[in-house]
Design brief:
With 495 residues, the protein is α/β, with parallel strands linked by helices. The chain has two domains: 338 residues, TIM Barrel (Alpha-Beta Barrel); 135 residues, Glycoside hydrolase family 3 C-terminal domain (Rossmann fold, 3-Layer(aba) Sandwich), CATH 3.40.50. Helices cover 41% and strands 11% of the residues. It contains 19 helices and 14 strands. The strands form two sheets. Strands 7-6-5-4-3-2-1-8 form an eight-stranded parallel beta sheet. Helix 18 links the parallel strand 12 and strand 13. Helix 5 packs across helix 16 and helix 6 runs parallel beside helix 7.
């Protein structure tokens, strides 16, 4: 394998658009780029996605001699690139709440079949971060929970289900980012934990995933000053990527960086330097998710470094050979539309979420009631349950109000009608600037003795900001699935 082909195997690039254009072909060919990552922006329909994956596979194999990894973040729940064409799945935290590993396996199997049908062969899931920081929206309901043993068991069951269709899995985000409030898409989180502390919590799910045969592990862009004395982001740290993950944990699969475009890295290093540092740290595949030209240019900057010995040629070949070894195991796409659109998947998703919707009566004993014409719905619009998510712009409060024939308030009203029989407030995640205004409005309603019900469409912690004089409902995720389950729940209640 020549140097440029080997380097090209070590990057996965994203792009804009839904077809393989001539311009994209030139960029991929110039860089000998060997792998692709897709997002919702690239996906319109089953037929379009199947055609796109086929075209990418044929073109890249012709240019490089190897079929590409075609990657997708199909975690389940809030981070899903297929939900708009394949239906919603329960989020990881809702699945974890059931305590039933077979649900994690079944959802993983469902996702694996869907990916296999369209030609995606590498799923960047499951999330193995433990939800240890209750205001951490970057993890939030993407985590199976806070107990590392539960997270590991659910994660390994998910891996087993995905593997059933020949799809590769990538456990993330190593060495664990659930204890930070900061989203590494925006800034570099600092976690002041010792190795012993990591071993007792964050590393435990990854050990289970490695034992279960996860094909890849994705890095977290976090700083661990008690472990990495040079104060490098963990993605760029040989101490963490090679000594800890390869050495101590014994992982010999593919090591994938989180996107090098995230501010946790980009604010410190340009793409080419970050790629060099990641490769030196032991990363096999660097992700550059938005501009394939940046991936091409960063790869080109590595060639003189290999020629000069700044980068080790043997290490580059070792990573490329590891990648190719996994490519030889990939299953061919099935093109099975029936597997992609099975009604049974939706029934399973509804069944799981209905089991775990959590209702807490008000302190005075007031219970959940069915909304009527004199009730009102108010709430935030869904816009990325975490920055890893997609732009959804889904208005759950408006949809629920229309379903029950209730009033819909697009914003907090200056006054409340005297005959209002109840207000239903739909909240998304902690930390939104407007949340304080909603909390204050609920306090005002309580003073007016207007019954209030608050829905969290994220995690139970969202409800902590509201008084216990309100009925509180945790519905776990902000999407069509949770709204459907709430409609069913509310319809069963007395007026």
């Amino acid at each position: 394998m020549n140097t440029q082909i080997a380097l090209g195997q070590r990057v996965s690039a994203g792009f804009q658009g839904t077809v393989l254009t001539d311009e994209l072909k030139r960029t991929l060919a110039d860089g000998r780029i060997g792998n692709i990552i897709l997002f919702r922006r690239n996906i319109e329909s089953f037929d379009q996605l199947y055609t796109l994956c086929t075209d990418l596979r044929v073109f890249i194999e012709a240019e490089t001699g190897y079929a590409p990894f075609i990657m997708l973040d199909e975690e389940c729940g809030s981070v899903s690139r297929l939900a708009h064409i394949a239906g919603c799945t329960p989020c990881a935290m809702a699945i974890g709440e059931t305590g039933n590993q077979e649900y994690a396996y079944a959802i993983g199997r469902q996702i694996g079949r869907q990916l296999s049908a369209v030609g995606i062969n590498f799923n960047l899931a499951p999330v193995l971060d433990c939800f240890t920081h209750k205001e951490g929206i970057a993890t939030g309901n993407r985590s199976f929970g806070e107990d590392p043993e539960l997270v590991g068991k659910m994660g390994t069951a998910d891996i087993r289900g995905i593997h059933e269709s020949g799809i590769l899995t990538c456990s993330k985000h190593f060495p664990g980012g659930g204890s930070t409030k900061v989203d590494s898409h925006l800034a570099l989180p600092i976690i002041d934990r010792t190795l012993a502390e990591l071993e007792s919590l964050e590393l435990r799910p990854f050990r289970q995933a490695i034992a279960a045969g996860t094909d890849a592990i994705m890095t977290a862009h976090i700083m661990l000053p008690q472990i990495e004395k040079a104060l490098l982001p963990s993605t760029l740290s040989k101490t963490i990527m090679t000594d800890l993950l390869r050495g101590t944990l014994g992982f010999d699969g593919i090591l994938v960086s989180d996107s090098l475009e995230m501010h946790a890295v980009q604010d410190m290093y340009p793409f080419d330097q970050a790629m060099t540092m990641a490769f030196k740290a032991g990363v096999d595949i660097a992700l550059i998710c938005n501009n394939p030209g940046d991936a091409r240019d960063a790869l080109a900057a590595q060639i003189p470094l290999l020629d000069s010995g700044t980068l080790c040629v043997e290490d580059c070949e070792r990573s490329a050979n590891r990648i190719v070894r996994y490519k030889e195991q990939m299953a061919a796409p099935t093109g099975d539309r029936c597997a992609f659109m099975s009604d049974g998947y939706h029934d399973l998703a509804v069944s799981i979420l209905q089991q775990v919707i959590r209702v807490t009566p008000a302190r005075n004993g007031r219970r959940l009631h069915r909304p009527g014409a004199d009730s009102a719905f108010l709430g935030v619009e869904s816009y990325r349950a975490s920055i890893a998510g997609d732009d959804t712009h889904y208005r759950a409060a408006e949809i629920l109000a229309g379903h029950f024939g209730s009033m819909y308030w697009p914003e907090i009203p200056e006054s409340v009608p005297d005959d209002c029989t109840g207000v239903y407030l739909v909240m998304e995640y902690d930390g939104k600037p407007e949340n304080a205004a909603y909390t204050a409005f609920v306090d005002r309603l309580v003073e007016m003795q207007v019954p209030v019900t608050v829905f969290s469409m994220f995690t139970p912690t969202v409800l902590n900001a509201f008084p216990d004089t309100a009925v509180k409902v945790c519905a776990w995720q902000y999407d069509q699935l949770s709204v459907e389950c709430l409609m069913s729940l509310l319809a069963r209640q007395p007026l």
